[in-house]
Amino acid sequence: MKFSVxxxxxxxxxxxxxxxxxxxxxVEVLAGGCSGLQYKFDLTQxxxxxxxxxxxxxxxVLVDPVSLDFLDGAELxxxxxxxxxxxxxxxxxxxSACGCGTSFSVD
Length: 107
Hints:
Blueprint: E1 3-5, H1 7-19, E2 24-31, E3 37-44, E4 52-56, E5 59-63, H2 65-71, E6 74-81, E7 84-90, E8 96-97, E9 103-105
Parallel strand pairs: 1-6, 2-5
Antiparallel strand pairs: 2-3, 3-9, 4-5, 6-7, 8-9
């Protein structure tokens, strides 16, 4: 399983952790949203024994094994545009997505 974190995301996670200390950013895939699955981003104080922990640029991004099944080959990125600033996932496994970009489906 491979999941990567862009330099933009690393910088943003570092900024967030400087303002609000935590172990790292947890990325999860949960049931819900308008397309069936949705991404969730939360600060976490704990790493679970079976988490994938990506340490890059002095920050940690954690992904649980169930979420990792949906994120194989995906990349966490951070976009800052006129439409707003947000984390995004470039996910090759998503077969469709909603307009907001936080909900997706797989076949």
